[in-house]
């Protein structure tokens, strides 16, 4: 049904050490891990990144690096530190935040949007030199907090090494989700998967199986040419048992 493979974002288990997370991902039969830059691999900590990369490789888990670099607030120097960790990890992709974190896209001037697009374009070019792709978090209170803003931003960046993630805003209705992916799906590399309501209450992924099945089926062909991952992000009560159940649900969705 889908060309996505199952994965995990380690922000799901901020308090667990990498070896425990690798064990959980392997026991759940996942294909990839996105390692959090604010919890498990700090930017520039290449020694730790190599250790975590080796743990991941031994478990046959592809890696991505989930950084919190936020251009244009963070510049190319900050990005290079995160990129060093991504390279040491062996990651093929690095995630960054578009715009200042916790700032709504509607509050940016045209000049500030141009500055953000240029900074991201430069980061995409720098990462391409090391054969690492750049993907933008798709998230409330960022320059991708609406589909219109995300679409305008990716068009302004205009770099073939920069892509979008996609995830639903908490409580997003299915019809709106389908409209979003129809508009920006051609730029989507990976997706973050969870089951939340608009109040950010978390539920078993099984309660949203039809939702995610519909979204993943509806995603149009993308210019992304690599392996694609649907990555679990957060589970009910941060419970490893809930994660194992959600992973089984996700794998079933992807197989159907």
Describe the structure.
It holds the Pfam family AP_endonuc_2. GO terms for molecular function: isomerase activity. InterPro entries: IolE/XylAMocC-like, Xyl_isomerase-like_sf, Xyl_isomerase-like_TIM-brl. Keywords: Isomerase. Residues 24-251 form the Xylose isomerase-like TIM barrel domain. With 256 residues, the chain is α/β, with parallel strands linked by helices. It has a single domain (4-255), classed as TIM Barrel. Helices cover 41% and strands 16% of the residues. The protein is built from eight helices and eight strands; from the N terminus they run βαβαβαβαβαβαβαβα. It has helices at residues 18-27, 46-58, 76-89, 110-128, 147-157, 174-184, 209-218, 240-255; strands at 4-9, 32-36, 62-66, 93-96, 133-136, 162-166, 188-193, 228-232. It has an eight-stranded parallel β-barrel with strand order 1-2-3-4-5-6-7-8, surrounded by five helices. Helix 2 packs parallel to helix 3, helix 3 runs parallel beside helix 4 (110-128) and helix 6 (174-184) runs parallel beside helix 7. The longest helix has 19 residues, at 110-128. The chain is globular, with a radius of gyration of 17 Å. The N and C termini lie close together (5 Å). 43% of the residues are buried. The model has no long low-confidence stretch (mean pLDDT 97).
């Amino acid at each position: 049904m889908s060309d996505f493979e199952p994965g995990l974002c380690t922000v799901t288990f901020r308090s667990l050490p990498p070896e425990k997370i690798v064990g959980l991902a392997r026991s759940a039969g996942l294909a990839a891990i996105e390692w959090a830059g604010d919890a498990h691999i700090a930017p520039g900590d290449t020694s730790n990144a190599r250790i975590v990369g080796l743990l991941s490789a031994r478990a046959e888990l592809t890696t991505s690096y989930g950084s919190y670099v936020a251009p244009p607030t963070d510049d190319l120097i900050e990005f290079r530190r995160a990129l060093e960790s991504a390279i040491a990890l062996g990651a093929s992709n690095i995630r960054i935040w578009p715009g200042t974190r916790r700032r709504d896209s509607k509050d940016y001037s045209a000049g500030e949007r141009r500055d953000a697009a240029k900074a991201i374009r430069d980061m995409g070019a720098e990462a391409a030199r090391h054969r690492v792709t750049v993907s933008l978090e798709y998230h409330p209170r960022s320059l991708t907090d609406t589909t219109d803003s995300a679409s305008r931003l990716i068009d302004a960046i205009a770099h073939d090494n920069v892509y979008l993630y996609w995830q639903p805003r908490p409580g997003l209705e299915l019809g709106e989700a389908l409209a979003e992916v129809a508009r920006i799906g051609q730029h989507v590399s990976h997706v973050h998967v969870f089951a939340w309501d608009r109040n950010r209450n978390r539920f078993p992924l099984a309660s949203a199986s039809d939702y995610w099945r519909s979204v993943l089926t509806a995603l149009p062909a993308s210019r992304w040419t690599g392996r694609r991952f649907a990555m679990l992000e957060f589970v009910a009560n941060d419970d490893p048992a809930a994660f194992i159940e959600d992973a089984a649900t996700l794998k079933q969705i992807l197989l159907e």
